[in-house]
Design a protein that fits this description.
This protein is an alpha/beta fold. It has two domains: about 200 residues, inorganic pyrophosphatase (n-terminal core) (Alpha-Beta Complex), CATH 3.90.1640; about 130 residues, Diaminopimelate Epimerase, Chain A, domain 1 (Roll), CATH 3.10.310. It is about 40% helix and about 15% strand. The strands form two sheets. The protein has a six-stranded parallel sheet, with helices on both faces. Strands 7-8-9-10-12-11 form a six-stranded mixed sheet. Helix 2 packs parallel to helix 5 and helix 3 packs parallel to helix 4. Bound molecules: guanosine-5'-monophosphate and manganese (II) ion. The site of guanosine-5'-monophosphate has 13 residues, from strand 11 and strand 12. Manganese (II) ion binds next to loops. Pfam families: DHH, DHHA1. This is Phosphoesterase RecJ-like protein. GO terms for molecular function: nucleic acid binding.
């Protein structure tokens, strides 16, 4: 029923690599989001069921509202156990690199991955993958890496043996990378895949609730503070900026994952099609960019914030103060005036 988007040649190679391997490591990007964790766990359960000794290694902590997933407690956090993680990476047969396109996105884990003699398989949906893997399954037209993992398992002929735990993780990743199917989600095949996952016994409403109804009260108080005190709307450009400094985050006991979804908030405002969220971190400003329509936030991210990502959802890092980051954003906005205004007009005409 669904189109074969991954080359047969790559499917055969991955199946062969899994067949020959005893041990596998799955790595995913820094500050892992729902798709990073979902695709990793979806594949992890599959590999375990295939008899492999598999481990997921993430560079740093991941959000608390993803910790209910089966297998999430076994995820190894590199920052906590660097030597152990490096040993596993150097001794493994096979490394799966999920939901990132360049090794710098996995920070120090990348050094160990590059040095490892293991075969490497990249499965990702970000544009411009770099050339470090033996098999590169890169599909920017697909809205989540989790969907690619589903497609890979099916094409290897193993849909029947996919477990409910794997299906649950895959659904969670597909859901979070599309804002619960509110953007990048017009491909009819997504819903065909969801039907298949439901047949595995997942409860999609339960999964939604676990992810989106599990925040702390402090997170909502921080959001309220941000929306009233830390938001600027640039009506002429249809753009919005929000930010949080260190003090704000301390005041509201911000935890990993608490700012997830904030970058999208200005897009809820009539006429706003481009949104930027700046969050002060210990040694840099973390930047999240979102857009609607054709406005390329990845171009803006790479021009100003050493970043990249997708057309409508990108990120980056700024090394300087919050005031300097705001200033750079405001100085750059006029350069994008034509693009922003034509995008806004196109969306209004729709
Ligand atoms: P988020 O804003 O949720 O952190 O990231 C959204 C998307 O932007 C991610 O899926 C990823 O593609 C991209 N992204 C986030 N941070 C960075 C970064 O520091 N560098 C690059 N190249 N891409 C990023
Ligand atoms: Mn993703």
């Amino acid at each position: 029923m669904f189109t074969k988007i991954i080359d047969q040649d790559k499917i055969t190679k991955v199946a062969d690599l899994i067949d020959k391997a005893d041990k596998a490591v799955i790595v995913t990007h820094v500050s892992p989001d729902g798709d990073a964790i979902g695709s990793s766990l979806g594949l992890y359960h599959y590999l375990i069921d295939q008899g492999l000794d598999a481990t997921i290694i993430v560079p740093n902590e991941f959000p608390y509202f993803l910790k209910w997933l089966k297998g999430s407690k076994d995820i190894l956090i590199y920052e906590k156990y660097p030597e152990f993680a490096e040993k596993l990476i150097s001794e493994t047969d096979l490394i799966f690199c999920l939901d990132f396109n360049v090794l710098s996105r996995i920070k120090n884990v990348g050094v160990a991955v590059e040095a490892s003699k293991a075969k490497k398989v990249l499965i990702d949906h970000h544009p411009y993958p770099s050339d470090f893997s033996n098999v590169c399954i890169s599909h920017p037209e697909i809205s989540s890496t989790s969907e690619l993992v589903f497609r890979l398992i099916c094409r290897m002929g193993d849909f029947e043996m996919m477990s409910k735990d794997s299906a649950e993780a895959i659904y969670m990743g597909m859901m979070t990378d599309t804002g619960a199917f509110t953007y990048n989600s017009n491909d009819a095949q997504i819903y065909y895949i969801i039907a298949q996952l439901l047949n595995k016994g997942i409860d999609k409403d339960f999964i939604y609730s676990k992810v989106y109804h599990s925040y702390t009260a402090d997170r909502y108080r921080m959001m309220g503070h941000m929306l009233s005190e830390r938001m600027k709307i640039y009506e002429e450009y249809g753009a919005g900026l929000i930010w949080l400094d260190n003090e704000d985050q301390k005041r509201f006991n911000s935890q990993k994952g608490d700012t997830e979804g904030f970058a999208n908030l200005p897009l809820n405002i009539q006429g706003v099609t481009f949104s930027v969220f700046l969050r002060e971190d210990d040694d840099m400003i973390k930047v999240s960019l979102r857009s609607q329509g054709d406005f390329p936030c990845n171009t803006f991210a790479s021009q100003c914030f050493n970043g990249g990502g997708h057309l409508n959802a990108s990120g980056g890092e700024f090394f300087g103060s919050l005031v300097e980051a705001i200033d750079l954003f405001e100085r750059t906005l006029p350069e994008y005036a034509d693009l922003l205004i034509s995008n806004k007009n196109n969306l209004e005409k729709k």
